[in-house]
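User: Just a sanity check before I run the rest of the batch. Below are the structure tokens for the first item. I only need the designed sequence back.
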């Protein structure tokens, strides 16, 4: 019953969100097109979804096209455009993910989906979080809302992310796995909306 309720909520509110925010999505799309001519408006990246199924997550483009394989970004990263920095600060680059929610690949609330490679590091009970549908927001997302700003202050952002932040996110997501509820998800959504 809880799964049906969560999915119904995801469908209804992602659809409402897409309708209400369609003018904002259109304006952002046009600005990206003007500021980065020739570059795709959307950034589509392979992520690991529920039960280890891969899916293509869609976001607004915030970086210049780059062959870099570094998945850890920090505030001031040379790859991030000035417009992209604004979009990322206010999480507006995440709006197209409502399409992923509507299609059933993601949920409004859940662990953030990792790129292939990171999920390989999970072992034992930690792999239980792969049973959850990934979300646009979640408890770990809230805790690390200013992750890029913080990583910009450490000497080795990739190492710090891999050794400190990633394990902490896994712990928080596993706690969510065991304790998530519909009303708990509502609280997370409200905290996300009013975070900034």
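Assistant: Here's the designed sequence for the first item:
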């Amino acid at each position: 019953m809880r799964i049906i309720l969560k999915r119904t909520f995801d469908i209804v509110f992602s659809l409402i969100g897409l309708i209400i925010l369609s003018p904002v999505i259109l304006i952002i799309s046009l600005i990206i097109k003007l500021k980065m001519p020739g570059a795709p408006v959307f950034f589509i990246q392979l992520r690991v979804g529920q039960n280890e199924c891969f899916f293509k997550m869609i976001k607004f483009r915030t970086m210049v096209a780059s062959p870099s394989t570094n998945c850890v970004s920090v505030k001031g990263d040379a790859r991030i455009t000035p417009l992209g920095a604004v979009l990322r600060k206010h999480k507006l680059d995440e709006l197209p993910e409502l399409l992923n929610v509507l299609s059933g690949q993601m949920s409004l609330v859940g662990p953030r989906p990792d790129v292939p490679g990171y999920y390989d590091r999970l072992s034992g009970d930690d792999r239980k979080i792969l049973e959850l549908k990934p979300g646009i927001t979640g408890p770990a997302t809230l805790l690390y809302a200013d992750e890029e700003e913080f990583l910009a202050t450490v000497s080795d952002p990739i190492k710090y992310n891999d050794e400190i932040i990633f394990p902490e996110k896994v712990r928080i997501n596993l706690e969510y796995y065991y304790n998530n509820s519909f009303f708990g998800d509502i609280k997370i959504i409200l905290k996300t909306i009013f975070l900034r």
